[in-house]
Amino acid sequence: MNIVIYILLITAAINFVLAIYSLRYRKSPGIFIYCLLLLAITFYSFGYAFELWSGDTANILFWLRLEYIGISFIPSLLIMLALHYTGRTKFLKPWVMAILFMYGLVTLLMQFTNFKGLFYLNFNLIYSENLVFADFGHGPWYWVHQVVLNLMLLISTVLYLIHVIRTTGRNRIRASIMLISCIIPYAIYLIYILGYRPHNLDMNPFSFTLVGFLFALGVFRFQLLEYLPITMEHVFDSMADGVVILDNHGNLVSYNQSATRLYPQLNQRMKGEPLDILLKGLPPLTELKDGYETEIEIPEKASPALFHTRVVSVKNDRNRKKGWTVIFTNVTERRLKENQLVQKEKVLKRLNASKDKFLAIIGHDLRNSFHLMINMSDMLISNIEKDNKEGALKKANIIYDTSVGTYHLLQNLLEWALIQQKGMQLNKTMQNITALADEEIQALRTLYEQKELTVTHTTEQPVIVMADREMIKTILRNLISNAIKYSYPAGNIRITETSGPESVTVSIGDDGTGMSVEEQDLLFGPEGILSKKGTAAEDGTGLGLRLCLEFVQLHHGNINVSSQPEKGSTFSFTIPIKGLRD
What we know:
With about 575 residues, the protein is α+β, with helices and mostly antiparallel strands.
């Protein structure tokens, strides 16, 4: 048997063994494409060996058809393997794979049936040096197949070449093996097409012989299949964390795509340079030690980014340290959220303390009010029994005033509680704010007459606003009540309304006790509690002003205070006339 046939049979055997061996990696995606390509090469080499051994037309045609079971699918399998190996599986849509396999089936049927001479035009035998060759005229589909085969080889070659350029070390060697495996059949095929064929031999099976040996080298020397079809570079580059690999001396060995987003200056030319050059101008890693962790702030266009940096030693199979892996994890957002949670926790603690203080003050005032009313009631009964009308009238007035104050306190407390529970809704209608102010002045007449206060209400014209009637009345009642409470006897209270193009401002001023700057800061701040007695020892909780603030904000307005100690205070609130910001 001719040496040529031996070579072809050895090639077929090698590729068949590799196909079976590759099944041990069957859990890897794409491994079956690799296995099918090896089997296709096996059919090609095995069939061509027996084609050369045959001596008659019938046997040659039989083995030729066996060859085409592999040849028909080689172009499709080549491109699918290249896409898998280089990490471009996104192009392998189900419909793309269906088209590629359909192409192989059509080519196989064309060769088997030679439908209307589309594959072979004629068929002859050539005898040369104890070998018999099939010689036939090439039909249209034969040339279609040759064009597709060359195109798939060319695309695969380009993909492997790009992969070689982008990888380093052993991964580059593996990619180079795949590149050469495409170049060899492509080069020999061009020689075959140009007519340079020794003894009329088809050189393509021999090119795949070399491919088989290359695959064997890759499998047994460089663990080719362990990285098929998705190489470590793609897993490496897909990581969200930036990763920099260093040698034992702290020099740059490799990095992933996330690292280049942190350090745009990273490039292939930097490999071999020390890490401190990479981190120039940034807080340094004080030491390369397994498990060492720190945080580094990296300047960015919008704002600095904070990265948690961790060092992990890289060891070989013998547990010897070969270098370091530095992992950069962006913790900016996490740290921001942690800080926000800390701030919220502080605010909640302050608010809880404020609420507890608020309720304690209210409870104290309610107890005092009821104690006073109980005592005054007891004394009132005694005065009535003794027919002391003057004393009874005085006690009755005290009971009345205390009841009114307690009622206002409870009313404010109820309204405030409804707001905190989101149970109070705006019911806006057109309101005459001037008339509402007059109503509240009249309702509080007894209180300010007891102190002999003068209340003046001035306005250029009646002011109409779109507002919630009860909320506005509550605001006016509380502000006027406070002016009365903190005014000295025979003082003055001034109430004015001014209307602008879009908003109305209501001011309530007095010339009473006034407040310091520190006291003003407490009024509407987060802890918003200022409890102080009035000029006639009237109790105060600060709840009324808190309620005024809530109601004004519900109307998309704002409230302000201007005050000086012993010179009086002026409270003013502004709201849109027609709810313009609703």
